[in-house]
Amino acid sequence: MAILVDKDTRIIVQGITGGQGTFHSGAMLEYGTKIVAGVTPGKSGEQIHGIPVFDSVREAKDARDATASIIFVPAPFAGDAALEAIAADLNPVVLITEHVPVKDEIRVIAEAKRKGITIIGPNTPGIITPGAKQKVGIMPGHVFSAGEVGLMSRSGTLTYEIAAGMTNAGIGISTAIGLGGDPCVGLTTIEAVKLFEQDKDTKALVLVGEIGGDAEERAAAYVEKNYDLPVVGFIAGRTAPPGKRMGHAGAIISGSTGTAAAKIKAMNDAGIAVAEKPSDVARLLRENM
Amino acid sequence: MAILVDKDTRIIVQGITGGQGTFHSGAMLEYGTKIVAGVTPGKSGEQIHGIPVFDSVREAKDARDATASIIFVPAPFAGDAALEAIAADLNPVVLITEHVPVKDEIRVIAEAKRKGITIIGPNTPGIITPGAKQKVGIMPGHVFSAGEVGLMSRSGTLTYEIAAGMTNAGIGISTAIGLGGDPCVGLTTIEAVKLFEQDKDTKALVLVGEIGGDAEERAAAYVEKNYDLPVVGFIAGRTAPPGKRMGHAGAIISGSTGTAAAKIKAMNDAGIAVAEKPSDVARLLRENM
Amino acid sequence: MKLFEHEAKDIFRIFKMPTPPGGFAKTPAEAKKRAEEVGKPVVVKALVLSGKRGKAGGVKFADTPKEAEKCAEEILGMRINDLPVEAVLIEEKLDIQQEIYAGITIDRNERKYIVIGSAAGGMSIEELAEESPEKIVKMHVDPSLGFQAYEAREMAISMGFRGKQINQLGSFFLKLWNIVDAFDVELTEINPLILTKDGRFLAADARLNIDDNSLFRHKDIIEKLKREPIEQNERERLATENDMAYVELDGDIACICNGAGLTMATLDAVSVYGGKASTFLDLGGGADAERVERGIEIAMMYSNVKAILVNIMGGITRCDEVAKGILSARADGDIKVPLVIRMVGTNEEEGQELLNKAGIPFLKTMEDAASKVVELVKEVA
Amino acid sequence: MKLFEHEAKDIFRIFKMPTPPGGFAKTPAEAKKRAEEVGKPVVVKALVLSGKRGKAGGVKFADTPKEAEKCAEEILGMRINDLPVEAVLIEEKLDIQQEIYAGITIDRNERKYIVIGSAAGGMSIEELAEESPEKIVKMHVDPSLGFQAYEAREMAISMGFRGKQINQLGSFFLKLWNIVDAFDVELTEINPLILTKDGRFLAADARLNIDDNSLFRHKDIIEKLKREPIEQNERERLATENDMAYVELDGDIACICNGAGLTMATLDAVSVYGGKASTFLDLGGGADAERVERGIEIAMMYSNVKAILVNIMGGITRCDEVAKGILSARADGDIKVPLVIRMVGTNEEEGQELLNKAGIPFLKTMEDAASKVVELVKEVA
């Protein structure tokens, strides 16, 4: 078992005819992902990697019985694409696009919430369930092996680094989720923890955070009160200076909030084992599981 | 019994310190209406007819345990006042103001619907339940006597005319509702019929319509299928020419829709007795009850 | 507030909505100049606030500036649906591949904006709705979200467009929505929206009505248009200034009442007894003596009036004030035709006493009053 | 995009938000002229994109134009928080009754805009939040409805205002919201918002940051401001042009990685082994050889750099491309300091082979790489 995507998930790729959409659709198909349709307005009738392209999400969904969507549409149009996916009741909607205006993110997330739909991202590598061979994202599939640890993270390559370390140590993953590097994202850390809590096959969690905001502190408080299985944490940005945006729009220390120290302390207080280096994550998992 | 307002209704008057607000608050109090608070931003501490004035609906509601609101705020600010009442969960909200921009009406009605709140109006004389001595509106209370007939209408004085005729004929009213003369109003004719249908003490209905739209046709179709008690109708504007706005913004025949002939036919088809003149309403009620 | 085609198109251009090149002319000479500027065959259109001007001869084509001048001469000075044509619009004649309908208005049942489109434009949407309803595509706008780009594309798809035209036409609908949203538009129609042979979509016509109740938010537009918001005759203008609802009809009995529904019902009652109203005049709620007198004055300005019926159901309106207004109008010599009064409700007795003293009769029911006024008009004739 | 105070106030004025009379000056002489135009005692303020300019001496008061000239002379040419002061703002010195705080930003936990106010303005909101959190009023904005006038009044009421000030201050907050909504503002603060002794509310200061991701919608603003959206040094500008994330730090090891999280983690690992990073450089996803070379070039432009650590976790990024980029940079003579490479993932073997052939060592874990680079820097020193 897993969360959000499993073997029954049937994916639409919005923006499939663009460079990124085409490239990653190929990679996803190769991994085993069930892509059933693509959408690019005005390009119906075309095929990408043998996948039929439609003019609208509604047409694609109706014709191909799709359940979820991944979006590669450029930032100015990504919010609209997400609203289109939400209107068609696709769930989850994985918004890969980076540089989406925050005003659009707020609208999309509010509308998704109203309809009970999970938005992953924006600015996310996506979500992967190795056991079901379902990769809805842009991550290198081979670094993730199937298993019982739920992994959530606000960054991409750091996730691959940690997943690769786990794989090398023989520890597999139920589902790994990139939550997205923007200040406002759909699925939050705490919500991801709650989803994993419901999944009986996830036996431990890895919570990869970074500076900015207080999502990790909130999740730690939740874990302390509600989550009984082992949790290992890692926080990137311990040496980041205040006021500088460290790549991700969300990774910025403003005033006294968002520091790595505060996050690590909250995790320690909640009984979460915090790794000093990415390579320590697998070891700590081994020790705690 | 009655619908929407009864003896337990506790009213806030929004715009109580304005000319209309003050005048009609006096008239309502005289009739017996339970006005518990007034609201005019910036005028807290004042009293109108002994009723305390507050700066905001929330303060007024909290201090005085109010349940419903009547709005006399000028048109440019009426939509905001209605949203304030909706946010404070007052129900119903009676919007007396005329000339409210239709865009504002659409927003207010959508938000009320989302929260399950009934908006009466705008551009309405209000609602009256004579048996509970609750008049939430600007109608002359003395023409309405208590009884078992539900009365709904899109116009004001015509309602008084018909109510007076009923009173003279010894026929009383459970609740009378002015639905409002604008094209877009909160409580629609068909919704009013449904509310009366739930009220076991309402034994017959009077449905006063006028040209414009097809609210009467829809209500007639509903009555034919669902409503078993007697219904008497009247339609104003049989001699109105197409394309001219007959006072009410909603009273306009556009294209082939909205004619009195179509409405009268729909009512007749639904088994509703249609009066030719206002004075015929009481007679038809007598004959059908 | 109804905008003239050229005014609507000025707003369209702010939103980068494509319109045919051209301009506005008040004289045949100006029309010729505009046609020269266009430099291609043109269409010359009457600028009137009325549909169906094509059928009335208000649209003509001209191959040369000289011809355009002649067309303008013919059209200027026409009356279309009883409205004088004071200006024409000269625009490039388009090379038409397809005529499309695009509009947005308010669905009063749903209490939502509704976007309407059809690939079969050109004819009126009412005719189309009767002849080929299946060719009309409609979509409601979610009040909390507004109209979205993907919905605009879905309109284009449902209308049968494919390929890049989905985005082109979608963008057109989206701009139209943005205009509606920004300017409190209660009705807009582009009919026809032209798809040219070279694949461009252009607004060949433009109808745009702004919600009168919203004009307080749009003073800058009125300023820019530099005209009064509503086209009215003297009597209508006076009534509007006095915040009275006033409509002229083709009968001879002026009905002065309080409340729109009661006024309509009074007109109907007059008709039941074989009469015909000249005037719908709703004094509104709580009219005082001065207002009643003003109402009578305005009604008497219309030459068709042969009798007056005052029908008051006193609620906020007090009958004594109404009586005072009538007496004052009579004293000033404003009432030059027979007058029938029906007056009940608040301060009914005081009002009746005032009329009694002045020797003016009155009636108790609107039916009696309607029948009486019809009788009087017949006597006059 | 952070706006300068005078730019923010230009936008405020479009929305009829009251600001003190005054203007902008680039020289002491201009400052004197502005002060003459104001005709009253003025405040002279440094125009820098940084808070706390008051504490840094960037705000001075002048009773006469002559004094204003002197103040401007002192302030122009200052550096505040390492930013040069190139212009000053001269404004009427207000007769202060009360200093108020008003701001709108984004609550990332709620994913909503949040409106913030306090009757205790003047000091920074962070300090206020620590000292007197009860004096701060906050209200979230419903994404589907927007901020409403009644909510703006509730802000004023909760901040302790009464009487007509509820409407005055409410209107201020509502305008501020309208600006936020119209211009994709991610942070705005008016601190202080002044209530004058004669009862007016004016924006004495103005901070306005527009969401960089939204600038495609606001080309007209950038056009009007006639400046580049972001204040950057040459290296930062180059990195932005190449769509790389680049931050300069006070250490001496340039960390060039792919992905923001991995780059941060690499900086942290360097620190674990006792080193200090000079450079955060995220190449982004799928960097090719050219991009890698460009990244190395940019990093080498910063004079603090004593060693380079390249840390690549190959996903979309291919290790062979990274190796090619490094080789090319070396061939061009760009790399003038010790270089440590850690490179795993996609096409790892091909990449390693390329490096092997060129005799360039590489490591397999980021921990080894971090420890190695720290060691090399110590040797150099």
Estimated radius of gyration of chain C: 26 Å
Class of secondary structure makeup of chain A: alpha/beta
- What overall form of chain C do the CA principal axes indicate? elongated
Biggest beta sheet summary of chain A: 7 strands, mixed
Determine the fraction of residues in helical runs of chain A and give it as a percent range: 25-40%
For this structure, the quaternary state is heterotetramer
Low-pLDDT runs of 5+ residues of chain C are: none
Q: Kindly state the mean pLDDT of chain C as a whole number?
A: 92
Note down, in words, how this protein is organized:
The complex is a heterotetramer, with 2 copies of chain A (289 residues) and 2 copies of chain C (381 residues). Chain A is α/β, with parallel strands linked by helices. Helices cover 35% and strands 21% of the residues of chain A. In chain A, α3 packs parallel to α4 (102-115), α6 packs parallel to α7 and α7 (215-226) packs parallel to α8 (260-269). Chain A starts with 10 loop residues before the first strand and ends with a helix. In chain C, the strands form 4 sheets. In chain C, strands 1, 8, 9, 10, 11, 12 and 13 form a 7-stranded antiparallel beta sheet that branches. A 5-stranded mixed beta sheet of chain C has the order 14-16-15-17-18, sandwiched between helices. Chains A and D meet through α4 and α5 of A and α9 and β16 of D.
Short description:
Helix content of chain A is 35%, strand content 21%. Chain A is built from 9 helices and 14 strands.
Question: What is the fold's blueprint, element by element?
Answer:
The complex is a heterotetramer, with 2 copies of chain A (289 residues) and 2 copies of chain C (381 residues).
Chain A: E1 11-14, H1 19-31, E2 35-39, E3 47-48, E4 51-54, H2 57-64, E5 68-71, H3 75-87, E6 93-95, H4 102-115, E7 119-120, E8 126-129, E9 134-137, E10 146-153, H5 157-168, E11 173-178, H6 189-198, E12 204-210, H7 215-226, E13 231-236, H8 260-269, E14 273-275, H9 280-288
Parallel strand pairs in A: 1-2, 1-5, 2-4, 5-6, 6-7, 10-11, 10-12, 12-13, 13-14
Antiparallel strand pairs in A: 3-4, 8-9, 8-11
Chain C: E1 2-3, H1 5-14, E2 22-25, H2 28-38, E3 42-46, E4 59-62, H3 65-75, E5 79-80, E6 83-84, E7 88-92, E8 96-107, E9 112-118, H4 125-131, E10 136-140, H5 149-158, H6 164-182, E11 185-196, E12 201-203, E13 207-210, H7 219-225, H8 234-241, E14 245-248, E15 253-257, H9 260-272, E16 277-282, H10 289-300, E17 307-314, H11 319-331, E18 339-345, H12 348-358, H13 366-380
Parallel strand pairs in C: 15-16, 15-17, 17-18
Antiparallel strand pairs in C: 1-13, 2-7, 3-4, 3-7, 5-6, 8-9, 8-11, 9-10, 11-12, 11-13, 14-16
Helix pairs in contact in C: 2-3, 5-6, 9-13, 10-11, 11-12
